[in-house]
Each structure stands twice: as C-alpha cells, then as structure tokens.
Design brief:
Elements lengths: L1 E13 L2 H35 L4 H7 L2 E3 H4 L5 E9 L7 E5 L8 E5 L3 E26 L2 E25 L2 E3 L3 E3 L6 E3 L3 E6 L23 E9 L6 E9 L2 E11 L3 H42 L5 H29 L1 H29 L1
Parallel strand pairs: 2-3, 9-14, 10-14
Antiparallel strand pairs: 1-7, 3-8, 3-13, 4-5, 6-7, 6-12, 8-9, 11-12, 13-14
C-alpha cells in the first residue's frame, strides 16, 4: 500500500504550448553542462576499466605454490596449501522460542561446530519506503510543479543482529590462519534457517497505520557456515606471513579450489569488473551526448514528422559517437605505447622521404 503527500508546489509558468516549449528548451540548455560532466565521468570509468582493476589473478599466478612447511619463516605475501586442522571450532549459541511471539520459556540451542559462521538474526516487519517524485499539472491555465512524497509499505525481513565468526585453523599443523572480515572466502558454504528465535533489545513494532499479516513480528536465524569434514580438506591460503601466521594480506584468500581454478575464478571476476566499468562508461557517454544535443532536438521537436525524425537521428548519432569514443579511448589507453611507436615511425619515415627528395635537388644546383 502507498500514500502520497504534496510537500511543495510552485507555478512554473503558463500552460500555453508555446510557453511550455520555451521552458523545455531553456531546461535542456541548462542540462548541457551536466552532459559534459557525464562525458568526463565516462572517460574516468573507461580509464578504470583499463588500469583501475587490480589483477590479483596475475599476482597469484606469479607466486610459487608452497607447502606449509616450505613457507615457514617467510615475512611476505605467500600462496600456501595444506590439510586443514581446526583445534577449536566456532559455534553460536541462541535461544529458541516456543512460539512466534516468543512468549514464555525459551530453549538454549547451538549451531553446528564450524570453521566459519555468518550469523543474521531477522524480524519480519512492515517497512516504510519513501521517495520523492516531481509532477506537473495544469491549474487554471498555469503549469504547476509539485514535489510529491510517496510512502510505500512492504512486509519484509529486517536484519537485527549480524556477526561473523572464524575459527583459527592450521595448514599441516605448521601455518596458522586467522580469518577476519577482510578475508575473501572462496568456499561454498551451507545455509540453514531456524524459525522463532529470541532477539534481545528489540524495539516495538511500527505498523504505520497498516493492517499487518499474521507473519509480522516473527523472527528467524539465518546462518551460513563451513562444516567440519572428515577426511580433512586441503585449502589454499594467500596472504602475508607473519611469524608463521597469516592474518591479513592483499589479497587474503581462503579457498578449497585448486590453484588453476582459483586463478581462473579471480580472472573471471576481474574481467566482469572491467566490462562493468566499460558498459557504465558507454551509458554515461550516451546520456551525456543526448543531453548536449537536447536543445537542438527541442527546437525542431514541434515540426511535424521532422521532429520525430530528428529525435531518431540524434539517438542514432549519440549511439554511434558514444561507441566510437568509448572504444577509441579504450584502444588508446590499452595500446598507447604501440600508437606512440607507430607515430614516431611515421614521423621518421616522413622526415626520411623529405630528405631523400631534397638530395637530388641539392646535387643539381
């Protein structure tokens, strides 16, 4: 359900079509500056696509794979593999309620013993989502612009308590690994959900004048974990070694993949990020060009048939120019050294040809 409220309004001018068109042209002219800003941001994004993505796949491919015993004593970034031993697994204690309202006694419970636990306690609530819209309407021959506050109410799960737990573990009993929130976990985890759990220090439910469903107010515990397994799995850990302990690093990765799978997965992530930057650059460049051409389009828009054709042509032109700009920028940034060498070679060739042409003329004189 949604409610609306006008928070401000102003008369922008006459609702006469000519006056509205003049205002539209004036507004599009003001947007030209924003168009140039978008072009600049687009260039920054294409630069990020080429040079802004750290290539962890290449960094790790260059590191030698070491057994735990071989890496001892190093004080640098290492890539170590070994069989996992977890002397003291982690677990999370919680209280299970007898009903959805959590009235009466609770039952102490615990999660499974694990190497890693991600805890999320949630309550089902009515959530208020607020957004502001700008609308125009005709009032007595004037065009009135209104700022409208729209409130939507949805029932959804809301996180109330989050926690991540790591157990210290060793690789072949030689190297200790201490996980942290900065650890990149590349292991498939198991996930479980427990309904009706007690959550401390909850505030009163806010219904916002809505009729709640029976589920509102219920709670649950959602957790993902890496279970202990036998036989012990083999992990690869990358990070900075400090006194035979890995607790940080750039990158700090814990995975059960093979070395080739790890490097491939990191490479795929990097390529995805590059493509995301490139697509974002193209979109901003296209929008920026469209905003720059908008005043001209607005001028011819009221000409029958021609206005529609001009809009289509401008859209197509913006599409082509944006593609050429982004692709050209990418090629220049990626292969600037090759372009520089070719330019130098062409200049040298031109100088040589000019000098060769002048030699016979000098000899004749």
């Amino acid at each position: 359900m949604a409610t609306e409220r006008v928070i401000s309004s102003r008369v922008v001018g006459s609702s006469n079509p000519i006056a509205k068109k003049v205002r539209s042209i004036s507004s599009s002219i003001k947007g030209v500056g924003c168009g140039f800003i978008m072009l600049i941001i687009g260039l920054v994004l294409i630069y990020q696509s080429v040079y802004g993505v750290k290539e962890y796949s290449k960094i790790l491919a260059a590191l030698p794979m070491q057994e735990a015993s071989e890496s001892m004593g190093n004080e640098e970034l290492v890539k170590v593999k070994g069989m996992v031993d977890v002397p003291t697994p982690v677990e999370y204690s919680y209280e299970k309620c007898a009903n959805a309202q959590c009235f009466g006694e609770t039952t102490p419970s615990k999660t499974e013993l694990a190497l890693y636990l991600s805890i999320d306690k949630q309550r089902f609530e009515i959530v208020e989502h607020v957004r502001t819209e700008t609308r125009t309407r005709d009032v007595g021959g004037d065009e009135v612009e209104e700022q409208v506050e729209v409130k939507e109410y949805k029932e959804e799960w809301v996180s109330k308590e989050k926690k991540t737990l790591w157990a210290d573990f060793t690789l072949n009993g030689k190297v200790t690994v201490k996980g942290s929130p900065d650890t990149k976990l590349m292991i498939e985890t198991e996930e479980k959900e427990v309904a009706d759990v007690k959550i401390d220090n909850l505030s009163a439910l806010n219904y916002y004048g809505q009729q709640p469903s029976a589920q509102v107010g219920s709670t649950r515990l959602v957790y993902s974990y890496i279970p202990l397994s036998l036989p012990a799995p083999e992990y690869i850990v990358t990070g900075r070694m400090e006194t035979n302990t890995i607790r940080s690093g750039d990158p700090f990765i814990v995975t059960d993949m093979t070395e080739s799978q790890l490097i491939q997965a990191l490479g795929d992530e990097e390529n995805f990020t590059r493509w995301a930057f490139a697509i974002g650059s193209w979109v901003l460049t296209f929008i920026g060009l469209s905003m720059i051409m908008a005043p001209i389009i607005e001028l011819v828009d009221w000409i029958p048939l021609f206005g529609w054709a001009a809009k289509a042509a401008a859209t197509g032109l913006a599409f082509v120019i944006a593609t050429v700009l982004v692709l050209g920028s990418w090629l220049i940034l990626k292969f600037w050294w090759l372009i520089l060498l070719l330019t130098i070679a062409l200049i040298a060739l031109a100088v040589y040809l000019v000098a060769k042409k002048r030699k016979p003329e000098t000899a004749e004189k």
